[in-house]
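User: Structure tokens for this complex, please. No commentary.
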Amino acid sequence: METILTVKNLTKKFGYLTAVSDLSFNIEKGNVYGILGPNGSGKSTTLGIVLNVVNKTTGDFQWFDGRTSTHEALKKVGAIIERPNFYPYMTALQNLKLVCKIKEVSEEKIEEKLELVDLLDRKDSKFRTFSLGMKQRLAIASALLNDPEILILDEPTNGLDPQGIHKIREIIKKIAGTGTTILLASHLLDEVEKVCSHVIILRKGEKLYSGRVDEMIASHGFFELKSNNDAALLKVLENHPAFGRVKNENGLITAFLNEPMDAHTFNTFMFEKGIVLSHLVKRKESLEEQFLTLTKNTSN
Amino acid sequence: MLRLLQIESIKLWNNRASRILIIAYFVLLTFIAFFATIKFDIGDIHFQLADQGIFNFPYIWHFNTYIASFFKLFLAIVIVSMMSNEYSNKTIKQNLIDGLSKKEFILSKFITVLVFSAVSTVFIFVVSFILGLIFSDYNELSIIFSDLEYLIAFFVKLLGFFSFCLFLGIFVKRSAFALGFLILWQVVEGIVYGLIRWQTTDVVTQKITQFFPLEAMSNLIKEPFSRLGAVQSVANQIGESYVKDYSVHWYEIFIVLLWTFVFIYLSYSILKKRDL
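Assistant:
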């Protein structure tokens, strides 16, 4: 597989504070990555370093095969970090033309990308007249002008209203669908869960996990159950070796599996025991639950 | 090179305030011609400035470059704000992310400064040339094209001054404060000048202060007024004889070029060191 970005033992110190500590990871072509972590966990600093705006303290990173300089490599990258930054007195079109000049690409893609983010009819409006959602969409259009090898998004939905968030997510999904590699930093877990195949989890500048989303925690999922006879149900569950923890909250019984079991087998088993279920759902832990477990485990 | 200049011109020309200031600057430069029309009518004395020989070749090169350099403040504002706006809009960050290197960023600003200085010099050459052809008493080619070192001095003076502004824009990051800093710097140079003068002699003071950046820039083109025929004759009448060196010296140009290099290099190293 083609490696797009390699980060090796990267460390960044701001005075006494260590923002990023000995971080290593690889970004492979074609995957959608999420960088997860609470505020202040070093996500933006890490992106800032690989994007040439923050100086590293120690460690190393390289783009693509490492033969091009960082700023040449960045011409093949599309990135938005934090707020959208454009010249407020210039129109959307003028701003994008400037970006084309910097990236040394032709201007013919401008209209197409503005169309993609739904801003074509506002192309001659000055940037300062845009709402935050529109600014963020313009930033995405600008990042896509060079049909980048990788799109880096740092908190792309931060501060947007629900419609704005929805629109940005639609755009991200559309781009992910075209096979573009994406690196999405966020503290919004459902956002990452919806689009990412891989995650890198950071806390206080340290890497807690990096790998596939579905391999994050060795877990077989759990059943959510309801029945008319809770007492009998609980007894059966507690005596069954396949179940570990069982909890009963507001009449909804949650039984965590120790070993794989599908819903069909479980339902047949219940029927044999004479228990009729009124509600049966098999679920995997959401990313949020996994994330909280992971961050809790390591904080002790 | 051309790409960097194009990038910078897009940024500058689309900014209305910068555009107005740039236009105003060049319009004001042509207003030097109005000196020709200044007349004093005091009773029987009719006095027209143009008749006093200010537009004579080669004196005009000295006079016009001296006067024109006052207007450099207009472009100074443009340059300081073109630099500090990149910080306040955070577009410098975006530029770097988009694939401009830090070196290219500084280079694009320096090229702009270079172009401003060069265009101003050419412009003042053309204006002076035309004014000279109209008003000068001497029109021999050898006289017209003598003393052209004032134009070189003018170019170097602008280059040094604008590079200083560029540095202040990067260093201070806010245009108003950067301009304030420029004035503060001028005052500090003045105070230090005064202190040295107080403790030593004129000659020693000159020797030391010629290395101060703003002093070095103003040394390049000395005031031309006392060189005028009318002033000279008045001075002679009251028994003062002016012996002043008005010429441009290579070491003065060298000092300013050295400062230019220092300012640009400092700008680059600040940008390189800073986390954005």
